[in-house]
Amino acid sequence: MDGHRGRGDAVTRLPSLPLAVVTAASLVVAASLAAAMRGPGATAQYRALPAPPDSTVVVLLGTGMPRPDPDASGPATAVVVGRRVFLFDAGPGVMRRMAAAGLPITGPTALFLTHLHSDHTLGYPDLIFTSWVMGRRAPLPAYGPRGLRRMTDRILAAWNEDIRARTDGLEHGTPGGWRVAVHEIRPGVVYDSAGVRVTAIPVPHGNWAAAFGYRIDTPDRSVVISGDTRPSEALAAAARGVDVLVHEVYPEARVAPERRPGGEDWPRYLREYHTSDVELGRLAARAQPRLLILTHLVRMRATDEELLAGVRAGGFTGRIVIGRDLERY
Fold first, then answer.
1. CB atoms within 10 A of CB 276
2. Which of 84, 232, 257, 287 yields a CA-CA distance of 20 to 30 A from 159?
3. Catalytic choice (9, 54, 69, 119)
4. Given the DSSP bridges, would you call strands 319-322 and 140-144 parallel, antiparallel or unpaired?
């Protein structure tokens, strides 16, 4: 998303065995690593997330958009299944939010990017390098649209001196621990392991050649994450009857040209790239998710009540919450 304003209501094919072991172990070591890094006297925030083997929890790590907001980090959502963490998008602040949520700072089991807009990927270098510095040893599996490999190669090249200094100097960084296993995906099942299946859903997002939503099926729940999209029939079909639908939104009643260069195209931009509250209400009325979570909020000063009223006006009568960073569902 390349827009302007926003803010984020509350209620709470593994690639290889080594990665699974590292990911599970990281829940144990994350606390001690973080404690060592933050020094004495700091508040203990890094607690491992209690996780029965097949339980599924959706953790909102970032509910914001491009306009900086200290209360709403860039887009990022974690789906935690037992001790495995599946991360969807990597907006600004993602590693800090993972630490605050008690998730492993050695990185997720896998990363899935919806598209390559900067607000969804500015945390990608942070994810790559901070997870390595905090102990990651295996390549980070990263799934996303065409262009992800080129982006990744250039990130690694840009931080080449950091890699050299940390590996060859007194930090004794794990050689190769910074690596990324990139998977450029097409629509369909892109990941299937140990009861977790992730399906990529093509969605329309303005002039982007490839953008995806994702459906995640686990042993006990189903979740759909929209990414950035205007109303999508494919997404509505994939979300039919799911336990949780996490969807972006903007308030239709607040749309107007903006007083800035190019601001006359703002209403057209929103219609072609995003989904209004009323449109989302219509989509959710057809899909009937058990829970609808609003995220990536382009508020334009709209209140929670206005957004909820817009979704209701579209016809959805089910349970809705307006997402806030670090909430769990």
1. 24
2. 84
3. 119
4. unpaired
In a domain, 6, yes or no: no
Residue 1 lies in a domain: no
User: What does the alpha-carbon distance between residue 166 and residue 218 come to, in Å, rounded to a whole number?
Assistant: 38
Model confidence over 35-83: pLDDT tens digits?
Answer: 443 333 333 344 455 556 789 999 999 999 999 999 999 999 999 999 9
Give me the amino acid identity at 33: L
Both structure tokens of 127: 């994810």
Tens of pLDDT along 80-95? 999 999 999 999 999 9
Give the CATH number, domain containing residue 203: 3.60.15.10
Interatomic CA distance for residues 90 and 161, integer angstroms: 23
Structure token pair of residue 95: 């590693």
Q: Is residue 328 domain-resident?
A: no
Count of the separate structural domains present in the chain: 1
* pTM metric for this prediction: 0.86
Domain that holds residue 233: 17-322
Place of tokens 């999508």: 232
Q: Cα separation of 45 and 31, whole Å?
A: 8
Q: Is residue 119 annotated as a catalytic residue, yes or no?
A: yes
Q: Which two tokens stand for residue 211?
A: 């953008």
